């Protein structure tokens, strides 16, 4: 440790209990970590030195980004066998290459800062999510984050061209290539994206940039159910050449919860009680507004939509988005018994939502249900809340039963138990139940090959190694 203190400098080692507290907490009140020491490198070479030292000593390493994860993916043990490695001091924008349409950044860059750096060159980095003011790009890649614009631009994986990674033995893999085509061997980049720091530590990345849309049309639509919302999406994409970037689904039950906490939310359709779809369509065509208006008029005629309001100003647009933002805010403040981030094929969205409404109401009739999310890519957030005025201190048996019901239904609809939040520690046991034995075996073999000592983010994703 003396060597690492000398290497990292006085600001590179945190062991004061008062200062270390924030590295042991999750943003939504989950179980706390027990790290006694946090290391804060400034450069990739320092990360490599830390990993080499930990490998020699048999000390576990818990990589940490902005601390915005939901599932205990950056949680260290209490017994002192693991330390936290924070990338927060690695915030350099190494290069912006306009001709190649790329930006190269270090893993500790805050997502909003990457967006701002791109905007300074009149370019768009489209990864966008609620925690963008504090989450790190390294964590976004480690969890393959999604957000609100996956429909048009893809997940974090789709936005990345190259990575720099420190392996569990301390060696550095420099794959920072800004290539759209590269078939020179195995796709190592995608091995680390979504691995949640269990195979290596992402220290830098080459990311894609896009032209900024010349104009964006925002609309909110009242629909009767999820099935009509899916049909509306297909019709909109067909008539706008797949120009929709956001397509958010907000059922009336989730909106009612949001109004409990934020009562002054906009009411676009007055007293009418609809499920809502919030959409944005961007592009450079001169008649984009007219095209979207025609598409929505057709949806009204076809019975896919009951009412439509197109935002006439940025103020009105923000009032629409405030409804969407208030839903997770309300769930966090009211407290949940369980909450899950899942995905299913679009063809299964309506069936899954109807099944969950019926089955969860039967199992927990006094509880309240919120299903909402990024409908454009089949990503739904499912939360069960206690009765109005109740507390979220449900016993573990009820929480397990509710979770098993939700996840079993998702898998029966050919879906995934994790869409964009990852697995972490909290969902690792569910992964063992719902991932096939063949897939789990392959994952364990990869883990054992790259991290034979098991020091990289122990207990995350995989609960045990053979």
UniProtKB/TrEMBL annotation:
<dbReference type="InterPro" id="IPR016164">
    <property type="entry name" value="FAD-linked_Oxase-like_C"/>
</dbReference>
<feature type="domain" description="FAD-binding PCMH-type">
    <location>
        <begin position="31"/>
        <end position="212"/>
    </location>
</feature>
<dbReference type="Pfam" id="PF01565">
    <property type="entry name" value="FAD_binding_4"/>
</dbReference>
<dbReference type="Pfam" id="PF02913">
    <property type="entry name" value="FAD-oxidase_C"/>
</dbReference>
<dbReference type="InterPro" id="IPR016166">
    <property type="entry name" value="FAD-bd_PCMH"/>
</dbReference>
<keyword id="KW-0285">Flavoprotein</keyword>
<dbReference type="InterPro" id="IPR016167">
    <property type="entry name" value="FAD-bd_PCMH_sub1"/>
</dbReference>
<keyword id="KW-0274">FAD</keyword>
<dbReference type="GO" id="GO:0071949">
    <property type="term" value="F:FAD binding"/>
</dbReference>
<protein>
    <submittedName>
        <fullName>FAD-binding oxidoreductase</fullName>
    </submittedName>
</protein>
<dbReference type="InterPro" id="IPR051264">
    <property type="entry name" value="FAD-oxidored/transferase_4"/>
</dbReference>
<dbReference type="GO" id="GO:0022904">
    <property type="term" value="P:respiratory electron transport chain"/>
</dbReference>
<comment type="similarity">
    <text>Belongs to the FAD-binding oxidoreductase/transferase type 4 family.</text>
</comment>
<dbReference type="InterPro" id="IPR036318">
    <property type="entry name" value="FAD-bd_PCMH-like_sf"/>
</dbReference>
<dbReference type="InterPro" id="IPR016171">
    <property type="entry name" value="Vanillyl_alc_oxidase_C-sub2"/>
</dbReference>
<dbReference type="InterPro" id="IPR016169">
    <property type="entry name" value="FAD-bd_PCMH_sub2"/>
</dbReference>
<dbReference type="InterPro" id="IPR004113">
    <property type="entry name" value="FAD-bd_oxidored_4_C"/>
</dbReference>
<dbReference type="GO" id="GO:0003824">
    <property type="term" value="F:catalytic activity"/>
</dbReference>
<dbReference type="InterPro" id="IPR006094">
    <property type="entry name" value="Oxid_FAD_bind_N"/>
</dbReference>
């Amino acid at each position: 440790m003396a060597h690492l203190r000398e290497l990292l400098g006085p600001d590179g080692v945190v062991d004061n209990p008062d200062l270390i507290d924030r590295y042991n907490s999750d943003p939504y009140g989950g179980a706390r970590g027990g790290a006694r020491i946090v290391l804060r490198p400034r450069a990739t070479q320092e990360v490599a030195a830390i990993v080499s030292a930990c490998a020699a000593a048999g000390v576990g390493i818990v990589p940490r980004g902005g601390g915005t994860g939901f599932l205990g993916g950056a949680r260290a043990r209490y017994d002192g066998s693991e330390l936290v490695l924070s990338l927060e001091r690695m915030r350099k924008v190494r290069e912006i290459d306009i001709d190649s349409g790329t930006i190269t950044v270090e893993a500790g860059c805050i997502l909003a800062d990457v967006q701002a750096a791109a905007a300074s060159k009149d370019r768009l980095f489209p990864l966008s999510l609620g925690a963008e003011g504090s989450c790190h790009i390294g964590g976004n890649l480690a969890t393959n984050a999604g957000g609100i614009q996956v429909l048009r631009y893809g997940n974090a994986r789709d936005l990345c061209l190259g990575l720099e990674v420190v392996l569990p033995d301390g060696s550095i893999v420099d794959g920072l290539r800004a290539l759209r085509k590269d078939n020179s061997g195995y796709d190592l980049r995608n091995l680390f994206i979504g691995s949640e720091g269990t195979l290596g530590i992402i220290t830098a990345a080459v990311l894609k940039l896009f032209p900024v849309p010349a104009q964006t049309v925002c609309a909110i639509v009242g629909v009767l159910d999820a099935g009509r919302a899916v049909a509306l999406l297909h019709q909109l994409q067909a008539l706008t050449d797949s120009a929709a970037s956001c397509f958010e689904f907000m059922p009336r039950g989730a909106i009612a919860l949001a109004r409990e906490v934020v009562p002054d939310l906009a009411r676009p359709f007055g007293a009418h009680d609809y499920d809502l779809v919030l959409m944005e369509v961007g592009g450079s065509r001169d008649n984009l507004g007219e095209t979207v208006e025609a598409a929505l008029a057709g949806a009204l005629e076809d019975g896919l939509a009951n009412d439509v309001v197109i935002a006439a100003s940025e103020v009105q647009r923000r009032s629409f988005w405030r409804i969407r933002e208030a839903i997770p805010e309300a769930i966090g403040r009211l407290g949940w018994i369980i909450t899950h981030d899942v995905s299913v094929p679009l063809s299964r969205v309506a069936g899954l939502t109807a099944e969950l409404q019926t089955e969860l109401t039967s199992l927990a009739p006094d509880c309240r249900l919120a299903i909402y999310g990024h409908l454009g890519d089949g990503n739904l957030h499912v939360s069960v809340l206690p009765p109005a005025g109740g507390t979220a201190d449900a016993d573990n048996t009820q929480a397990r039963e509710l979770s098993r019901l939700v996840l079993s239904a998702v898998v029966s609809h050919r879906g995934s138990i994790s869409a964009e939040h990852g697995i972490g520690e909290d969902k690792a046991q569910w992964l063992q139940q719902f991932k096939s034995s063949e897939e789990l075996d392959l994952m364990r073999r990869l883990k054992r090959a790259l991290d034979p000592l098991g020091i990289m983010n122990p207990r995350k994703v995989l609960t045990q190694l053979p």
